[in-house]
């Protein structure tokens, strides 16, 4: 008989909105350990009734079970190795000028004086345009891809009727992109993937990157802006010292991550952790919101501090499934905030904080609108040399 307890402060049995029961890990150290534990599988095809999309038709499950996030080594290793060169520090540095140009163009369209929604007019289009650049998606198709990506993210937990059509549309779109690149190759990521993967594998990779690279990055930018507006002292600090920006983005990710939880992982053998027994066949998830606010790991965890130095948050996950696009997402957010600070002397909320519009979609708490009033600079794009220019 095991002496393990039913639950602990860091590992708790919880019921999901769809009625399934999983182990939820809430402590930073435990989450970090389990996210790299090979006794947990990400292969959803082996999870049976506990698979994330078990209630969906078989054709839809087959599409989702091909993606890299739903694979273990060696399949995961092979797919990630092929995609990784497109998201290295060097690759992101190469695309930074394009991101800066897109960000400037969006900022220049924002009206000063009048009320502006920074989510709809800035945080939503920027990641979409960036992915369009990476994948070679025509500008007139980007908005449609983004719309279906949002529908997909909103339909995951609990599963909604809108999930199936979003999966089918995105899969067909990604597969068509792969086929186009085989016929008309370029020097982009999809063409490189088609050299080593079949159309189904390429489409699953593109599908995953389209969803993760748009909705989540939009929320990183949107939530980051709302945090700065509700912590004006931290906004002032960024205005006075732009070198703080990279660390500020990490603090935004820690304080209010785009995703609340990690993907499902199933134990393939018994795991004893924190006096708790996780049996083979049990599903484990990690709460990113709670692990990132763990007082045993972070000093003053509930304080938003753009200058925080020790900030090993888990918002991009950990281990072999750590977010492939982490470098790109952080660069987009950093450039977005830099651009807005460069273009506007004042960015002020147009409504009280309590009236901001949020939508609970299970895996995310999405900020759907951020009304502000902007005051432009006399010379648009000029950076303040020192201090707060307001």
Key features of this structure:
390 residues, alpha+beta, five-stranded mixed sheet, three-stranded antiparallel sheet, 14 helices, 13% strand
Description:
By secondary structure, this protein is of the alpha+beta class. It has 14 helices and twelve strands. The strands form four sheets. Strands 1-2-8-5-3 form a five-stranded mixed beta sheet. Strands 4-12-9 form a three-stranded antiparallel beta sheet.
Summary of the model, kept short:
With 390 residues, this protein is α+β, with helices and mostly antiparallel strands. Helices cover 46% and strands 13% of the residues.
Task: Return Rg in Å.
Answer: 21 Å
Strand order of the largest sheet: 1-2-8-5-3
Q: Name the average pLDDT.
A: 89
Query: What would the principal axes of the Cα set say about the shape?
Result: globular
User: What's the number of helices?
Assistant: 14
The major beta sheet can be summarized as: 5 strands, mixed
Give me the secondary-structure category: alpha+beta
Number of strand segments: 12
Question: SSE string, helix = H, strand = E?
Answer: EEHEHHHEHHHHHHHHEEEEHHEEEE
Instruction: Tell me the fraction of residues in β-strands, as a range.
Output: 5-15%
How far the N terminus sits from the C terminus, by CA atoms, comes to 67 Å
Q: List the uncertain runs.
A: 379-390
Instruction: Please bin the fraction of helical residues.
Output: 40-55%
